[in-house]
Amino acid sequence: MRWREQYDRMLRWKERLWLDPVLHGEHAVDSFYAFAQTCFHLTDWLENDRSQPVRREQAEQYVTSSPNLAFCRDICNGSKHAKLEANKVRVTTKKVVESYSVQDETGVPLEGTTERTELFVGWKGTMIDIETFAALCIEEWNRFLVGEGLLRPS
Predict the structure, then answer these.
(1) Considering the domain boundaries, does residue 69 fall inside one?
(2) What is the pTM of this model?
(3) Residue 142 domain boundaries
(4) pLDDT digits over 80-135, tens only?
């Protein structure tokens, strides 16, 4: 298996972080934890892909040196071992209900409501949305992978 499979999977999980709150509500929390696990476990995929030179120790050192990826590792391990509080991980959700009023093509008013779930993770003393946090983690991996010659600069 190639490391790129896991990297691409991480990108797909990140994309679901904006879609799941709209379509599936509470499932978005599951997607966030799946993103964190996929993101951190890229270290395993790098180790097991002998077609490239990066080994687990080097990748894990990078994770430890990156506040974003180190916190992602804590989320991964905390969600996997039911120890989120011990790792000081706080994930909160907020339901947002919005009313709308539009007119159809004949001018007849249509009214309704939409509901979505917004998710936030406690990061550096503030709550940030999970999409932003995931983007920061991907930026960190991209920096590392470009530096190792595994990705082209974008």
Answers:
(1) yes
(2) 0.81
(3) 3-90+128-147
(4) 656 555 456 777 777 778 888 888 888 888 888 877 777 888 888 889 989 999 99
> Looking at the domain assignment, is residue 68 inside a domain?
yes
Q: Which amino acid is at 115?
A: E
Three state DSSP letters for the chain? CCHHHHHHHHHHHHHHHHHHHHHCCCHHHHHHHHHHHHHHCHHHHHHHCCCCCCCHHHHHHHHHHCHHHHHHHHHHHHHHCCCCCCCCCCEEEEEEEEEEEEECCCCCEEEEEEEEEEEEEEECCEEEEHHHHHHHHHHHHHHHHHHCCCCCCC
Compute the distance between CA of residue 34 and CA of residue 27 in angstroms, rounded to an integer: 11
- Amino acid identity, residue 59? A
